[in-house]
Write a structure and sequence with these properties.
This is Helicase HerA central domain-containing protein. The chain is of the alpha/beta class. It has 3 domains: 132 residues; 324 residues, P-loop containing nucleotide triphosphate hydrolases (Rossmann fold, 3-Layer(aba) Sandwich), CATH 3.40.50; 63 residues, no CATH class. Helices cover 25% and strands 22% of the residues. The strands form 3 sheets. Strands 9, 10, 11, 12, 15, 16, 17, 18, 19, 20, 21, 22, 23 and 24 form a 14-stranded mixed β-sheet that branches. Strand 4 and strand 5 form a beta hairpin. Helix 6 packs across helix 9 and helix 11 packs across helix 13. The protein is elongated.
């Protein structure tokens, strides 16, 4: 094939160029109609029956497409919410799930000539193509007095029904089943851009149900925030936790009983949450006006206390926050109810049974005041080992395995020179309505020691919440939110007795959360490592940017949203909470409501 070269004269055929007897006219032989639509009054386009118009019980059989007029095409995005009216006043609320150009006229534009024309052209004549939006019907909306009710799509709209962008906040909230009130998470968004309406403020706040009118508050059905490094998960977590500490937010502990403020205990491996005591120096007057307009709690939470575990010679420096600091130690007596706390590595069933027997015997002899050092000396007794072996209660090899694991615990973990955590609970200092109790572990260099501290204290809280005969009434009688950052380090699946005991304990806590007014607030960058039984109890999943495919699959959000997760910017999130709303995109607050970050 010869080189076409510069084919300026070949852009039109002979009839278009004209001959000597038929010179080409200066202008086209006909005028094109003006089709530029403003979209302000006439909507975005109309439903197209030529592409199929069908509502079906099987969503895959539904066929609903709208022709988008040329003037509106640049503004349309995947995920945009649209409405189409029915005769009689009802409205179909739907979402754009696909966009495509289709040829309006029969032609072959996959040719060299068409390509060269396009390369020389300044643009595309939109009127030469059909632009179709594939729609997913979400709900049928009806006016019921001052309220808007929703039901599943059960009617097919008429052909050529004009569709418009949803721009009414009440209409959008009803269509997506977003509660009017509750705990604020952020603003509804599409593709990272906040959804705008004609109202003031123009944004749509996304909230999580927090009242008893339509069931239990979702805080007691548990929350997971998942996001990679730099995604903004700690920023988002602080904003949410601050709302649960709002002075006007209260929960009844018993049916018909008095309402009390939430107590929050936050385990903090990176030492970031005690900063919630302080105001955010980066917040300006416009931020505060916005927060006040939306009724948000903001500013430092005065009743924030850092309860610092004393472990060995580790020292805690806290020049990045002004919260009160209270040192505590884990007493060895806590091991009596949770034997797995004193094993440095995995135990099998026989070893765990032996440990349990030995602890019972030890505490029976030494009482609650028995220490870890005394227990090590108690085990280092050849006569005891021989007695248990000869009686057939504990095999010699099993006894030695238990001894090795107990002696392998990190130094300086139990019974240090500080008040015990149990004493702080008994004196109603650690768990108190309206208090944020932060347990930092960043200063503990030994990861096993840090893990043991977190599991010991969290197990104390869970055990007392679930107990029918609690030792510490302050825990039982207070609505409690247990926050755990880097939750994958503490609630992972593993083939050991310790892991099974921990997972079993927190699974039961999650199941009983609604009844006991106990909520779990888990934060992680590795959701795939959180044990399945615990994960299944989480009702509200907030997903920020994640780059790991296994992590994205693990959060179990709809496939249409999974594909967006790796591309989300800082603060962008997907919220999947089936009992609260349809799955949606949300844009978090750009400025943290409390202090965040270190200078």
């Amino acid at each position: 094939m010869s080189d076409l070269g510069d084919f300026a004269d070949h852009g039109r055929d002979d009839d278009e160029r004209g001959g000597d007897d038929d010179p080409a006219p200066a202008d086209d032989d006909f005028d094109r109609p003006t089709l530029e639509a403003t979209g302000s009054d006439d909507g975005l386009g109309a439903l197209a029956v030529s592409e199929g118009l069908r509502i079906h019980e099987d969503g895959q059989e539904t066929a609903l497409k709208a022709y988008v007029t040329a003037g509106n095409r640049a503004a349309v995005r995947l995920g945009t919410y649209l409405v189409a009216p029915y005769p009689g006043g009802e409205t179909l609320f739907c979402k754009i799930t696909g966009l495509e150009y289709v040829q309006a006229f029969e032609s072959d534009d996959a040719t060299e000539i068409h390509a060269r024309r396009a390369m020389r052209s300044d643009g595309v004549d939109e009127a030469d193509y059909k632009f179709l939006a594939e729609l997913d019907p979400v709900a049928v909306l009806s006016d019921e007095g001052d309220d808007i009710t929703r039901r599943m799509p059960d009617r097919v709209p008429k052909p050529e029904t004009v569709v418009r962008a949803a721009d009414d906040a009440a209409e959008i909230k009803a269509g997506l089943k977003i509660p009017a009130d509750g705990v604020f998470l952020g603003h509804l968004s599409v593709g990272g851009e906040k959804v705008r309406t004609a109202a003031d403020p123009p944004t749509i706040d996304y909230r999580v149900k927090d009242g008893y009118e339509a069931g239990d508050p979702l805080v007691f059905r548990h929350t997971l925030i998942a996001g990679g490094t730099g995604s903004g998960k700690t920023h988002a977590a602080k904003n949410v936790l601050r709302q649960y500490l709002h002075e006007d937010r209260r929960y009844p502990v018993d049916s018909g009983g008095p309402e009390r403020r939430m107590a929050v205990v936050q385990f903090d491996p990176q030492d970031e949450y005690a900063q919630m005591h302080d105001d955010n120096p980066d917040a300006d007057a416009s931020d505060r006006r916005q927060w006040e307009t939306q009724g948000l709690a903001y500013g430092g939470h005065d009743d924030t206390v850092a309860f610092v575990p004393t472990v060995g010679s580790a020292s805690y420096a806290a020049d990045h926050h002004a919260a009160e600091q209270v040192a505590f130690t884990v007493p060895f007596s806590m091991v009596r109810d949770n034997p797995w706390l004193v094993a440095s590595s995995g135990l099998n069933d026989n070893q765990y049974g032996a440990l349990h027997l030995l602890l019972d015997r030890f505490f029976g002899q030494y009482g609650e005041s028995g220490t870890y050092r005394e227990f090590c000396a108690f085990l280092d007794d050849p006569a005891l080992k021989e007695e248990l072996d000869e009686s057939g209660r504990v095999h010699e090899a099993t006894y030695e395995a238990v001894l090795r694991r107990v002696n392998g615990m990190p130094n300086g973990l139990f019974d240090q020179d500080a008040r015990s955590i149990t004493a702080l609970v008994e004196d109603r200092e650690f768990v108190q309505p309206g208090r944020l109790s932060v347990v930092p572990t960043y200063h503990i260099s030994n990861s096993r020691a840090a893990e043991t501290v977190v599991l010991a204290v969290s197990s104390l809280l869970v055990d007392q919440k679930l107990s029918n005969d609690p030792r510490y009434d302050a825990i039982k009688r207070t609505p409690l939110l247990v926050g755990m950052d880097e939750a994958h380090n503490f609630l992972s699946d593993a083939d050991s007795v310790q892991a099974r005991k921990v997972v079993g304990k927190f699974t039961e806590a999650a199941k009983q959360g609604r009844k006991e007014r106990l909520g779990l607030f888990l934060i992680t960058q590795d959701p795939q490592d959180i044990a399945g039984p615990v994960f299944k109890q989480v009702n509200t999943t907030v997903v920020l940017n994640l780059g790991d495919e296994d992590a994205i699959q693990a959060v179990n959000i709809p496939a249409t949203l999974q594909s967006k997760v790796p591309y989300m910017n800082t603060g962008q999130m997907v919220v999947y909470s089936p009992d609260n709303s349809e799955p949606v995109e949300v844009q978090g607050l750009a400025t943290c409501v409390t202090r965040h970050g270190r200078d």
